Amino acid sequence: xxxxxxxxxxxxxxxxxxxxxxxxxxxxxxxxxxxxxxxxxxxxxxxxxxxxxxxxxxxxxxxxxxxxxxxxxxxxxxxxxxxxxxxxxxxxxxxxxxxxxxxxxxxxxxxxxxxxxxxxxxxxxxxxxxxxxxxxxxxxxxxxxxxxxxxxxxxxxxxxxxxxxxxxxxxxxxxxxxxxxxxxxxxxxxxxxxxxxxxxxxxxxxxxxxxxxxxxxxxxxxxxxxxxxxxxxxxxxxxxxxxxxxxxxxxxxxxxxxxxxxxxxxxxxxxxxxxxxxxxx
Length: 281
Known about the structure:
Number of strands: 15
Strand content: 15-25%
Shape: globular
Low-confidence stretches: 276-281
């Protein structure tokens, strides 16, 4: 089976490429600025803002499965419009598509969100991700839209880097005690995305960790795993910071988890398990 990882040079994308190759899939991946370093994968430059290039890459590679793991932030042309161009190409060429979305599509007003609840974003990034979900589902109803949360792993994870920068004094900031999410380990997320890609699933799925933690508590867990001085992590409250976005957003993944062999572990489980393992520099 063949798979195309769009955004394969990123943090999640690299793990998807690695796992796809380890499973024996013929693997291609795209990059925006420079190719990734995973061996035995073919690398292709792709700008999701260019419809003809999107069409050309999909047509030339003709993969069985496409997983879109790109992250364009609040750039509307990349984050909102790009996935729709990709979905159109995937539908035209009969490729299965898994589009990775985010819990940022929710405001936090309801706290607990299952797959049936409609987006109500409160940030430009969340609005772009919500628009992409709508567009993908409209042009390609058989696609999977997989919402996830904070992605944790080694220091390629932005959340892990922040903790290291705080503990070392390279950054003077705070981790919020009232900002709650359901973090997921990058290896669990990649395995679940590939599992969905090679299934007959369609529609919205939630792929986040099995427990909710605040960003401060997550930081302490990461610091302990990596042997850092967690007493240097300063606590704060997002509600007092003026930073926009939902406070308490918890993805309910129980329905999706029942469909999967992959176990979506909670942060305390995968971070405590990793305490005795060496962290990547």
